[in-house]
């Protein structure tokens, strides 16, 4: 059974940093691209970041470029999102998700997100 | 990248069909057949319903179907059931990133 278990959320002051983790099990983690999606309280989904299966390439939405860093440790089957220079606009639930390999093994592009973590709440407040 | 446009809400009676539209641009929905749809119940993680415009993953009811014409994709829910009451989001690939729709709340009357 595919599982994505998230950890690392919490309360952080404006300007602070946090690292989110997403531990994968039930599939060959190193064969799949992964992604992060967030949801502000009472709002819709927003795609945040993604990384290829090897970790060689990463991608970000404009509002987090330079502040967020996605990475992965395929030896530990774990995905990470380092978030920094946080503001209230970054408050929300952060989900990790597996990228379905529709067109090429491990590809991040032109795909969909088939398994999701349970979410981690990040609250930016003083 | 602006969010794709969806109606805020749609409603229908049990057994009826409802269709949710998702309007993008020539750079996302209109350019790629990489439109997916997600269902989200309150307090839960999203669930993939449709990938590549019209493909259903194993285990997803055939009451859910997708289509696309030009810059607009659509999700149709046939034979509406109480359990379909949820929020629905479209998503499109666009030049090394992805963009979600604004979301649609489906109410079963």
Q: Could you explain how this protein is built, in words?
A:
The complex is a heterodimer of chains A (126) and B (109). Chain A has 126 residues and is an all-beta fold. Chain A contains no helices and eleven strands. In chain A, the strands form two sheets. In chain A, strands 2, 4, 5, 6, 9, 10 and 11 form a seven-stranded mixed β-sheet that branches. The N and C termini of chain A lie far apart (40 Å). The mean pLDDT of chain A is 96. With 109 residues, chain B is mostly beta strands. Chain B has no helices and nine strands. In chain B, strands 1, 3, 4, 7, 8 and 9 form a six-stranded mixed β-sheet that branches. In chain B, strands 2-6-5 form a three-stranded antiparallel β-sheet, with no helix packed on it. In chain B, strand 7 (86-94) and strand 8 form a beta hairpin. Chains A and B meet through strand 5 and strand 10 of A and strand 3, strand 7 and strand 8 of B.
């Amino acid at each position: 059974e595919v599982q994505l278990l998230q950890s690392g959320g919490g309360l952080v002051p404006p300007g602070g940093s946090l690292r989110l983790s997403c531990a994968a099990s039930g599939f060959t983690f190193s064969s799949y691209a992964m992604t992060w999606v967030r949801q502000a309280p009472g709002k819709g989904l927003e795609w945040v970041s993604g990384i290829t299966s090897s970790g060689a390439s990463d991608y970000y939405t404009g509002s987090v470029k330079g502040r967020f860093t996605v990475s992965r440790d395929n030896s530990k089957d774990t995905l990470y999102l380092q978030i920094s220079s946080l503001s209230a606009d970054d408050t929300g639930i952060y989900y990790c998700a597996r990228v379905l390999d529709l067109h090429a093994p491990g590809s991040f592009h032109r795909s969909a997100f088939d398994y999701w973590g349970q979410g981690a709440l990040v609250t930016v407040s003083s | 990248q602006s969010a794709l446009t969806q109606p805020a809400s749609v409603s229908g009676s049990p057994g009826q069909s409802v269709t949710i539209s998702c309007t993008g641009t020539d750079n996302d929905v209109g350019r790629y057949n990489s439109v997916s749809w997600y269902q989200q119940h309150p307090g839960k993680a999203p669930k993939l319903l449709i990938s590549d415009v019209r493909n259903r993953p194993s285990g997803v009811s055939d009451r859910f179907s997708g289509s696309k014409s030009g810059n607009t994709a659509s999700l149709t829910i046939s034979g509406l059931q109480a359990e379909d009451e949820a929020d629905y989001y479209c998503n499109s690939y666009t030049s090394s990133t992805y963009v979600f729709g604004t979301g649609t709340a489906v109410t079963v009357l």
